[in-house]
TrEMBL record:
Active-site annotation: H699
Keywords from the UniProt entry: Amino-acid biosynthesis, Metal-binding, Methionine biosynthesis, Methyltransferase, Repeat, Transferase, Zinc
This protein's name: 5-methyltetrahydropteroyltriglutamate--homocysteine methyltransferase
Cofactor(s) recorded in Swiss-Prot or TrEMBL: Zn(2+)
Role noted for this protein: Catalyzes the transfer of a methyl group from 5-methyltetrahydrofolate to homocysteine resulting in methionine formation.
Organism: Pseudoxanthomonas indica
Binding site for L-methionine: I436, G437, S438, E489, D604
Domain Cobalamin-independent methionine synthase MetE C-terminal/archaeal: 431-753
Length: 760
């Protein structure tokens, strides 16, 4: 007996079918019924794909139209009062209003806050709770999808976010203790589990990802209480699931909870296996997460097989389930689609489909199936070929890294000296306005890029088109009276992929899409070898844009930590070493931009906090090399060159010292959804540099007016010095349309000018 299971499958589809269905529905070009039909087709296709791969237990309720945290909040009626009338009248419209905001028929609703899901590049919507919160079942999504799978011939395992992690990852809007709501929430969970039990579900996967965080007595008490209560109710067997690392100090807790099974991440948390096996009660199921659900390299199956056999020797074959380390949400669907990659490199890759095939092979090897030895030998050969490949290692990169000294990460003058020199050069007003970088990537822009890639638009014609779009963007910004301009990034397909395409050591896929949030998908580059820069990457277009205007033009770069975090990264050396290679390549770009006369250079690092280890004891080591890499990139800039950085959807309270240590002259951050709450960290620390707190949310189609933006700036000016404050959107404008962009920026500039009058 050898049981394989999966924790979750990518929901967007191999060709981003869900994205297309969502966006046509939002534009009114298709109906809600059309959207639900596409969603149903994707679920059925994915269940069948997993079954065809030989997976014994497939998940259900892992699918979402937008986000699993939003699904959970909606399911349990944790809906802010302002949205309730819309949600009652039109549940789907209410659901999307929470995700994207809503401005129609006199109803004006902002979107919920959004932040990163642990240390991934997936964003989740943060439910809003309060002390008087009540819960009830709204709809029956988990039950309906279980019955849908059952009718299609799949005895699926429903996936639920656990009650404690749901509360902990939510937000209290009145300062109350979220965990105090647990006893109101548990009866609703019990009711749902009872319904699933009656429908024939024998197991339910209950995700408690917060188990991998530092041990917290309040959380531990909440878990003990929650699962003791649920143990008393008629319900299916529960598989408690943690992932993204080791449960650490929570190991004794999870070993003693009254659940029938436990899933552990044995890729990132292999160190926990021995201790768990010593404590795990006989007769309970262990789901061993042996295949990496976060990266795209083929597994070392020999190593995984050793762990599987070791675990099987302790818990017995009938109680060992083989699984990926976490949901496969974080990887693309099928590497077989990447026919443009050479065969050698493609042979190193495993997307969701291939990971399930690896899982089945592990199961067959445990059973000593005749074909398994030959398949394992082929896997071993691929693994060894990658390790030996000359395309991976470059001696000149190793030599450059070896020459690094501390001076490379130091600016030539302290901040106050730089600030005076930069103001003398730039002559900016109070509350200077700028944008984060990108302007609308319209259908026409994407079509021109696609035609050029396909050879249907000549190099010359494509360059002329880009030049015209850049000039249009510059003229719009001048007409709006923005102080520091950007060129719009029309030549860039993605803020990481664009750079990776011009750096050595990267490879690119055609269908390697993963979900970032909602309908927003990204196609991470693959860092397979040493990174270096053959030629300048951004200088020509930035120089051209600057030639069109007398106003300062920002050079726009993606920082080394973000390039690292938003790529699939090689696993044969430390992430710190790979990041240093990227920083050295970007350093040369900063040098060339400055030589071209660019006075403002933005080095975006939205992923700095995202890379933070989940265990606090590991933070210092990560922050040391992450900050060092940013400083290596920026350290070559002269004192008159203003270095900006941008971070979005991050909590800064606990890493504010590291943010300051980056020594950037200006930082822009997301603050509109949180209503400037993020500024508290910068106040307590007395952050010495300049700050651009975002005054409107670009991830929502909702358009705030200048009075609303000025209200946010008033809040900012209460806690920051006037000379510190910049005025900008939360993030880049790539996903917005031109009409809404110009309307919102006009309101933003008006708000900035009003602030100048007040503070003159």
């Amino acid at each position: 007996m050898s049981t394989t299971r999966n924790s979750g499958f990518p929901r967007i589809g191999a060709r981003r079918e869900l994205k297309q269905a969502l966006e046509t529905c939002w534009r009114g070009e298709s109906s809600a019924e059309d959207l639900q039909r596409t969603a149903r087709e994707l679920r059925h296709r994915h269940w069948q794909l997993q079954a065809d791969a030989g997976i014994d237990i497939v998940p259900c309720n892992d699918f979402s139209l937008y986000d699993q945290m939003l699904d959970t909040a909606f399911l349990f009626d944790a809906i802010p009062d302002d949205y309730r009338a819309l949600a009652d009248r039109d549940p789907l419209a209410g659901y999307f209003a929470l995700a994207r905001g809503h401005q129609k028929d006199g109803v004006d609703l902002r979107a919920l806050e959004m932040t990163k899901w642990f240390d991934t590049n997936y964003h989740y919507l943060v439910p809003e709770l309060h002390a008087a919160q009540q819960f009830r079942l709204r709809g029956d999504k988990p039950l309906a999808e279980f019955l849908e799978a059952k009718a299609a011939g799949h005895h699926a395992q429903p996936v639920l976010l656990g009650p404690v992690s749901f509360l902990w990852l939510s937000k209290s809007v009145d300062g109350s203790d979220r965990l105090e709501l647990l006893d109101r929430l548990l009866p609703v969970y019990a009711e749902l589990l009872s319904r699933l039990h009656q429908a024939g579900a024998d197991w339910v996967q209950v995700d408690e990802p917060c188990l991998v965080l530092d041990a917290d007595p309040r959380l531990q008490a909440a878990w003990q209480h929650a699962y003791a209560v649920l143990a008393q109710q008629p319900r299916p067997k529960l598989l408690l699931a943690s992932y993204f690392g080791s449960v650490g100090d929570n190991l004794d807790l999870v070993s003693g909870l009254p659940v029938e099974g436990l899933h552990l991440d044995l890729v990132r948390g292999v160190d926990q296996l021995d201790a768990l096996l010593q404590r795990w009660p006989r007769g309970r199921v262990l789901s061993a997460g042996l295949i990496d659900g976060r990266n795209i390299w083929r597994a070392n199956l020999d190593h995984a097989l050793v762990l599987a056999r070791y675990a099987q020797g302790h818990v017995g074959a009938e109680n060992l389930w083989l699984a990926p380390s976490c949901s496969l949400l974080h990887v693309p669907v099928d590497a077989d689609d990447e026919t443009a990659l050479d065969a050698e490199l493609r042979g190193w890759l495993a997307f969701a489909k291939q990971k399930l095939e690896e899982l089945r092979l592990l199961g067959d090897a445990l059973l000593n199936q005749p074909h398994a030895d030959a398949a394992l030998a082929r896997a071993r050969e691929r693994h060894e070929a990658r390790r030996r490949s000359q395309r991976v290692h470059r001696p000149e990169v190793a030599e450059l890294q070896a020459s690094l000294t501390a001076e490379w990460s130091q600016r030539p003058a302290p901040y106050e000296t730089r600030r005076a020199r930069q103001q003398e050069r730039l002559q900016l007003p109070a509350f200077p306005t700028t944008t984060i970088g990108s302007f609308p990537q319209t259908h026409e822009v994407r079509q021109a890029r696609a035609r050029h890639r396909a050879g249907k638009l000549s190099d010359g014609d494509y360059q002329a088109y880009l030049a015209s779009e850049i000039e249009r963007c510059v003229r719009v910004q001048e007409e709006l009276d923005i102080d520091v301009l950007v060129h719009g990034e029309f030549e860039r397909n993605d803020m990481v992929e664009y750079f990776g395409e011009q750096l050595e050591g990267f490879a690119f896929t055609r269908q390697g899409w993963v979900q970032s949030y909602g309908s927003r998908c990204v196609k991470p580059p693959i860092i397979f070898g040493d990174v270096w820069r053959p030629t300048p990457m951004t200088v020509a277009w930035t120089r051209y844009a600057q030639s069109l205007t007398t106003r300062p033009m920002k050079g726009m770069l993606t920082g080394p930590v973000t390039v690292l975090q938003w790529s699939f990264v090689r696993d044969d050396q430390s992430r710190a070493d790979t990041c240093r290679q990227i920083s050295l390549a970007l350093r040369e770009e900063v040098r060339d931009l400055e030589a071209a006369g660019i006075a403002v250079i933005q080095i975006d690092e939205p992923a700095l906090r995202e890379g933070l280890p989940l265990r606090r004891a590991e933070w210092a080591s990560y922050l040391d090399w992450a900050v060092e890499c940013f400083r290596i990139t920026a350290g070559v800039a002269g004192e008159g060159t203003q270095i900006h950085t941008h971070m979005c959807y991050s909590e800064f309270n606990d890493i504010i010292e590291a943010v300051a240590a980056m020594d950037a002259d200006v930082i822009s951050i997301e603050t509109s959804r949180s209503r400037m709450e993020l500024l508290d960290a910068f106040v307590r620390f007395r952050y010495p540099y300049q700050i651009g707190p975002g005054v409107y949310d670009i991830h929502s189609p909702r358009l705030p007016d200048s009075a609303e933006m000025r209200g946010l700036l008033d809040k900012a000016s209460e806690v920051l010095a006037v000379e510190q404050i910049w005025v900008n959107p939360d993030c880049g404008l790539k996903t917005r349309g031109w009409a809404e962009t110009t309307a919102a920026l006009r309101e933003m500039v008006e708000a900035a000018k009003a602030m100048r009058l007040v503070h003159a």
